[in-house]
Design a protein that fits this description.
About 70% of the residues lie in helices and about 0% in strands. By secondary structure, it is mostly helical.
């Protein structure tokens, strides 16, 4: 396993422990450097649009990700 994947897994594990210990009822907890931009992108769509995009073929989905980075 690469060092990058190990760090990512440790970040997620630390967040899970933090949430479990906090007693929070918050549903989503962001982890990693790409979490905030992805959440911002999600907020620009309706629920129906998000579902449609994620049900689309890979080319359509990845084209949308490319547009996000521009």
């Amino acid at each position: 396993m690469s060092a990058t994947k190990t760090r990512q897994r440790l970040r997620v594990a630390a967040k899970i422990l933090e949430v479990a210990d906090s007693g929070t009822w918050e549903l989503r907890h962001l982890v990693g450097p790409d979490a905030r931009p992805l959440r911002g992108w999600r907020k620009t769509m309706t629920d129906e649009g998000w579902i449609e995009l994620n049900a689309a073929d890979d080319a359509t989905f990845f084209a949308s990700l490319g547009a996000l980075q521009q």
